[in-house]
Amino acid sequence: MAESFRIQTINQISAIGLKRFPAGHYAVGPQAEPPDAILVRSQNMHEMEIPQSVKAIGRAGAGTNNIPVKRMSERGVPVFNAPGANANAVKELVLAGLLIASRNLVPAVKFVEGLDADDKTLDKLVEDGKKQFSGSELPKRTLGVIGLGKIGSLVADAAIKLGMNVLGYDPEITVEAAWSLPSQVKKAHSIEEVLRNSEYVTLHVPLLDVTRGLISADRLKSMKHGAILLNFSRDGIVDNDAVLEALQAKRLRYYVCDFPAKKLLNEPHVVALPHLGASTREAEENCAVMVVDQVRDFLEHGNIHNAVNFPDVAMERESPFRIGIANANVPNMVGQISTAMAQAGLNIHNMLNKSKGEMAYTLVDVDSAVPDKVIARIAEIDGVLSVRYLPQEAR
Length: 395
Fold this sequence. Notes:
The chain has 395 residues and is of the alpha/beta class. It folds into three domains: 1-86 and 278-309, 3-Layer(aba) Sandwich (Rossmann fold), CATH 3.40.50; 90-272, Rossmann fold; 311-395, Alpha-Beta Plaits (2-Layer Sandwich), CATH 3.30.70. It has helices at 15-18, 69-74, 87-102, 105-113, 119-129, 150-161, 175-180, 191-197, 217-221, 240-248, 281-301, 333-343, 372-379; strands at residues 5-9, 26-29, 37-40, 56-59, 79-80, 142-146, 165-169, 186-187, 200-203, 227-231, 252-257, 270-272, 321-328, 348-356, 359-366, 384-389. The strands form three sheets. The protein has a seven-stranded parallel beta sheet, sandwiched between helices. A five-stranded parallel beta sheet has the order 2-1-3-4-5. Helix 7 links the parallel strand 7 and strand 8 (186-187). Helix 3 (87-102) packs across helix 6 (150-161). The longest helix has 21 residues, at 281-301.
């Protein structure tokens, strides 16, 4: 059977995920052109010329800052991600960061690496030098968790199991996240409350306009003296200049992050990792599997799960004849779509319409084949961004 869809891969996508595209029905690879969909990890796509053939973009990870989401929304193209698929990997790295900072492990390792002596002298140097690396234990300390999504919840649960007290804050917490949150997590009513009452603070919020510079100089001043700040979320959430000032004033004991920045290099109390959060084989496989399944379901059936710019819309097939329509969220759009179908003598078997912000999406199952002229008529409706006819063929 000839391939129906072409999937262009940017970056290395786990083969475990790519195998979920049925061979013979999908052409998959860097040279798959013109692409019906693009799969990407960290490649910056903002300056790319994205072909008009692209119907979806799948990010094999959580963050989509490397993708021109607004531009894709204007074209009616959903941008899928894989929220939670790398959560365990990030959780484990946060725990590593807690221990690295609490036990002064980085300077301790550097100290040992700098020793040059025979075994007898080495023993004495170690015994004399280890006092400067004395650390603190985690039980009964308070960890503040800002952002209680999948990762934040896992971190909170792990910290509780280590004997820590956990203070959490998330004004946008979902019902699902709230259910999965350990009951021992104490609820804070503001970021400032978390900062004032925590020896450790870890950040797990997306980088949005409202979260850029969230941890500012003023907020750092409210932290406990000698606190440790961990950022495994996004670089722009923390003001690096403010962090340097807080470290120099010894208000912060350590800043542990996954995002090296030039001004933070060689700072003795900054532990910057090379963006290792999702860098495990398991996380890469989980992300690839999740995003491939979502992109495939959209291409074949028009269903949408976990698109950052579209509402979740999923409808069981009750007819082999389906239309998927992306449009601006404006009044009377469903009415105009229904009218166009009725005028063509098409009977609507089932319809589902949902909106998210300025974007709306409609799935329509009809009882008979849809002529090209009807698709063209719907596409001409003011506010319609894209229309796809999705007849279900025998596979």
